[in-house]
Each structure stands twice: as structure tokens, then as C-alpha cells.
Specification:
This protein has a single domain (65-254), classed as Vaccinia Virus protein VP39 (Rossmann fold), CATH 3.40.50.150. It is α/β, with parallel strands linked by helices. A seven-stranded mixed β-sheet has the order 6-5-4-7-8-10-9, sandwiched between helices. The chain has a three-stranded mixed β-sheet with strand order 1-2-3. 32% of the residues lie in helices and 22% in strands. The chain has ten helices and ten strands. The chain is globular and about 50 Å long. The protein starts with a strand and ends with a strand. It binds S-adenosylmethionine. S-adenosylmethionine (SAM) is lined by residues 102-103, 105-109, 123-126, 129, 159-161, 179-181, 202, 205, 211.
Length: 255
């Protein structure tokens, strides 16, 4: 797993506060606390007003930042109703649902689900990824195209297992959506340059199987799990049905 630090710039600390992320999120990660930097592979920093994770090793690809408005996600959110993740989460429901995206990552699925009209609570536990996501969401919120979408998303820094277990009855979501980082069995992810650093920094989510059970206990209607198209279902648990895409698949567990 890649080691990283947050560059201890005053404007970066200010930005973290402004994003309503607790500064404690980066405790122990500031560059000023680190004595041995020999293993360091990436730095989290603010550059031209944008938070980015920059690899120090070129083999890890380009800097990672979150931009919901331009590029691929921007295009996808404009046609959100056609996205397979939206179809999997919606099922046959016609009403706007409440969704917990328990593995928010860089927030692309959260944003697409919110663009389709769902109220989304997005949970991310990794401090560096949380900084990237909070920053991208804040910029989207201020844009004319993304403002209304971002306003349907509530971000939460924490471990989804705990958040879901502690949810009061009235806040239980209709759907819990999971896309954990499972150990890679194929070399496919390695070729995606933009994902290399992200994958390396986050590592594998080895508690994904347990998260499925917690999600099933919390969801009112269904749990949806994103998987590589040919992978085994999580914990060998057969889903109620599946939606197949080109490289990925959505396993739907009605509750
Ligand atoms: C594969 S990525 C998700 C990508 C995301 N679906 C997107 O569209 O950008 C998985 C993310 O889930 C986070 N994660 C995994 N298990 C978690 C948990 N139990 N609680 C909170 N975050 C978790 C990881 O830190 C990682 O950032």
C-alpha cells in the first residue's frame, strides 16, 4: 500500500476547515509529523485552489483530483437515468429513494445517483480520499451545472460499518450501495492509469464481506454491490438478480 502525506501548507489546513472536514481527519498524516520520508509515494496538497493527490513516482500515473463537472463524470451525470448503477439501485421503485453509498471513494457513483434524483448519504473512511471528495463536491456545489445535484449528497467521514449500525430507525435508507476495493484478480486495473494511484493508496477493503451483512441489516428495500463482471459474488452469497455491464456487474440483494 502506498504511503502518502498531506503537505503542511496553511492554505491546505484552511481549505480542510472550510470543507467541514474535521482537521483530525489528517492527524498523523501532515508532512510536519513525518520523520522518515524514504517510503513516501504520494503527497496530498492544494494547487491552484484544487486538492490533489500527486504521485512522487511517475509509474503511479497522474495526480488524482475530483471534478464532477468536466470530463467523463460530467458527461455521465447528464444522462444519469441511463446508467446501470441507477437502474440497479432504483429496481422497480418509481419514487425517489434514499441511498447510502457506503464506499464513496471519488464519489462518481454518488454523483450519478444524486443526478438521477436520489438523496444520497456518502460515507468515506480514507482521509486522503475524503479530502479529494469533499473538495470536488464543494466545487460542484458552486457550479451552475452541479449545484442542485451536489445538494442532494450528504458527505460523512467515517467507517460505514459503524455508521450503518448506529443509524436511528428513521434514517435507515431504502438502498445501500457498495463498491469496495476487492483484491484484484486480473491485471485489468493496472492498465487504467488514472486508477493506479487511487488503488495503491486505498489498498484492498478486506472487510467488504462483513460490510455486506451490515448493509443488509440496514437497508429497507435492497443492497446493491458492484463487482467485476466475472467475479464471484461477495462472500459467495447469491444475489436475487444481477445487471450485467461490459466490465462490471451489479448484484442486487432484495431485503
Ligand atoms: C472502489 S472505491 C469506490 C469508488 C466509488 N464507487 C466511485 O464511484 O468513485 C472504494 C472506496 O470505499 C472506501 N471504503 C471501503 N470500505 C469502507 C467502509 N467500510 N467505510 C467507509 N469507506 C469505505 C475506500 O476507502 C475506497 O475509497
Amino acid at each position: 500500500m502506498t504511503s502518502w502525506i498531506a503537505v503542511d501548507q496553511p492554505d491546505f489546513r484552511t481549505r480542510v476547515r472550510q470543507l467541514n472536514l474535521p482537521l483530525a481527519c489528517l492527524d498523523g498524516h501532515w508532512s510536519s509529523h513525518v520523520t522518515d520520508q524514504s517510503e513516501l509515494k504520494a503527497v496530498l496538497e492544494i494547487r491552484d485552489g484544487v486538492v490533489q493527490l500527486r504521485p512522487l513516482d511517475k509509474a503511479l500515473g497522474n495526480p488524482v483530483m475530483v471534478d464532477f463537472i468536466h470530463g467523463k463524470t460530467g458527461f455521465r451525470f447528464l444522462r444519469a437515468q441511463h446508467e446501470m448503477v441507477v437502474k440497479a439501485v432504483a429496481g422497480r421503485s418509481k419514487e425517489p429513494l434514499t441511498v447510502v453509498d457506503a464506499t464513496a471513494g471519488l464519489g462518481r457513483d454518488s454523483f450519478i445517483l444524486a443526478a438521477a434524483g436520489f438523496a444520497v448519504r456518502s460515507i468515506e473512511r480514507h482521509p486522503a480520499i475524503a479530502c479529494l471528495l469533499w473538495d470536488g463536491m464543494d466545487r460542484a456545489r458552486l457550479s451552475p451545472e452541479g449545484g442542485a445535484v451536489a445538494d442532494r449528497i450528504a458527505l460523512q467521514w467515517g467507517v460505514a460499518h459503524t455508521v450503518l449500525r448506529d443509524l436511528p430507525e428513521v434514517e435507515r435508507p431504502d438502498v445501500v450501495y457498495l463498491d469496495p476495493m476487492f483484491p484484484e484478480r486480473t491485471k485489468q486495473a493496472l492498465v487504467k492509469k488514472e486508477m493506479r494511484l487511487f488503488r495503491d493508496v486505498v489498498g484492498d477493503d478486506l472487510d467488504g464481506e462483513e460490510l455486506l451483512q451490515v448493509a443488509l441489516d440496514a437497508a429497507g428495500k435492497r443492497v446493491v454491490v458492484k463487482r467485476p463482471r466475472k467475479a464471484e459474488p461477495v462472500a459467495g452469497r447469491k444475489p436475487g438478480y444481477q445487471l450485467l455491464g461490459k466490465s462490471s456487474r451489479f448484484d442486487v440483494y432484495p431485503v
